[in-house]
Amino acid sequence: MNERNHLARQGEGKLYEELSRSNLVTTKAWYRAAGILFAVTAGAAGVFFYMMATGIGVTGLSRPVMWGTMIILFVFWIGLSHSGTLISAILRITRAGWRAPVLRGAEAMTVFALMVGGLFPLMHLGRNWRFYYMIPYPNDRLLWPNFRSPLLWDMVAIGTYLTGSILFLYFGMIPDLAVARDFSTGWRKKLYTILAAGFRGTHSEWRRYHVASTLFAVLIIPVAVSVHSIVSWDFAMAMVPGWHSTIFAPYFVAGAIYSGIAGVITVMAFLRRVFRLENFLTERHFDNLGKLLLTMTLVWGYFYFAEFLTTWYSRLPEDWALISSYGGHFLPLFILMLTCNFLIPLPALCLSKVRRSVPAILAVSLVVNVGMLAERALIVVPSLARRNDPSIWLNYFPTWVEISFIVGSITLFSLLYVIFAKLFPVMAISDIKEHLFRTTDRAVGGAVVPSVAEEDEGEGK
Amino acid sequence: MKHKWAMAIDMDRCTGCGACVVACVAENNTPTAGEEEAGKGRLMQWLRVSRFWKKEGEETRAIFVPTPCMHCEKAPCEIVCPVYATYHDEDDHLNAMVYNRCIGTRYCANNCPYSVRVFNWWPAKWEKPLDEQLNPDLSVRSRGVMEKCTYCIQRIRRGKETAIKEGRKIRDGEVMPACAQTCPPGAIIFGDLLDPESEISRTVKDTRLFKLMEHLGTEPSTVYLKKQKGPGR
Hints:
The complex is a heterodimer of chains A (461) and B (233). With 461 residues, chain A is mainly α. Chain A has one domain (2-452): Formate dehydrogenase/DMSO reductase domain (Formate dehydrogenase/DMSO reductase fold, Up-down Bundle), CATH 1.20.1630.10. Chain A contains 18 helices and two strands. A two-stranded antiparallel sheet of chain A has the order 1-2. In chain A, strand 1 (439-444) and strand 2 form a beta hairpin. Chain A starts with a helix and ends in a 9-residue tail after the last strand. The model of chain A has no long low-confidence stretch (mean pLDDT 86). Chain B has 233 residues and is of the alpha+beta class. Chain B is globular and about 50 Å long. The termini of chain B are far apart. The model of chain B has no long low-confidence stretch (mean pLDDT 91). Classes of the chains: A mainly alpha (461), B alpha+beta (233). The interface between A and B is large, with 45 and 44 residues.
């Protein structure tokens, strides 16, 4: 008999205890983990202030390569942010039965990756302290930002997506916050009381909640797609060989979903291990996410091939100089990207053994994310290093400052996540409960199998 | 008073001596970078002499292309700046740059196909005694902003002011950027295209005329005159 199917019938308190164990006891291990993450992040922040005080000269950037690691990290993190809300929205709309335990973790990943990614365009500014010049604020000189600049579109798109994602995350959390309110004490009780916004779980509240969450899910999808298109337009709108390509928008979106799914799997594997959620995040979830990842491997491979093919076939001299550099100075990066993004994941994910083993699929997702970081680097740097004028060609390598930003961005993301998991229900309790209520164990012959009852569409619903 | 300033560089006359670069550095308070920084591509020179090698039979010849800002009519740098730090000066047809407004996104430099924009990686510095020759006519740029060739806008301004004071039009050759003034063989010709009598207006009718990366459609104001071939050259 499957134990988890009965949890739902033991009252919400039991389920909350099971799913949000982290909220109830703060262990020494948590303080240790958070402390280490905070220390590393603070170190990277210190490096940033050092750069701010000294000048952008401490990076490895140069005359042709004006954008480097910080822009690579920006594209990477915004890409990673992509899948959370998108997957969550798509799974909600398609009513995928297995979705419930994946939602919250994925949505939170989106918000934190966006926060981390959004920092980098600001960090990379030559005069970071003047970043507010990009905001259309009323001023004496009637100066407005330039709405023709893709950077401004970027700012607007990321702002919209961040706002939307936070709302989406918060909105999905309201019923769970209500559960948390009912089963907590002290300052947590106060916090959850405010955040739960008086949700009591009446029939009409639930009905509105369902309508609104469907609406939300439908609305967030175009926002998600447009954000990464706009990030790609930073590049595609520029007259730089290798950037000026119409395929960039869909290619970036596909790449973003690809790295995002890998990110979701990574996050899920950690959540499962740390919070002992083996009962809820089953091998089936990893199997399904693995299939999604496999699909995206193929989509990404196709886009990359298509982009490469047109350049190779037309052989415009400036584009060709760029592609040649993939076989020259940038060969290690190119091999890293191709191996990590295609040659390893493709055969690995075809095996159900790999998909169903959590350590194996975690390894594959980490490999994919390394590959995606390499891919972003390969988009940003070689195009600039092989500009139209061969007399100024120059290669680029990040300095310790930029490498500390890479490390710092990972720890900042983890830190935000660790704090989130401490404060909020990390699993979509109500969604899981709903799913569990529909699940019963049935005896078929000698075997006991879980069976799921589907809701009827139509009147009376 | 409207002008359309333009520059022509005669490749036949250019010897690649680099005097124009030195003149530009001296005129425009361009900070010195030092050997190590220069190796990292951090030279702050607004005008560079690009060198290309061309194989002709057994011989390999060097080709020198002095590359200042092209002051494009359809400038790719202008549209991408999020804060309008670089914009089109409609009166003089220049790509103007407002240093105080620049926040250093470096997008303009990426979008410039000629890669002639330079960035202030460090606070400006001059080794002694170079600091004593700073030009009082224009500012020293702060760290973290983009800067570029302005066709010596301070000289253009002075020329215009003098002409207004004396109640006349600017004479041809009255305004001359530092590079053109210095060029020993006189390879750099500068003037107002709206003045039909000017030397530049005559020069742009030359059949040897070509523009760098003309296919990109940036409509540069800096044009070149092709090197001639044949005996005597």
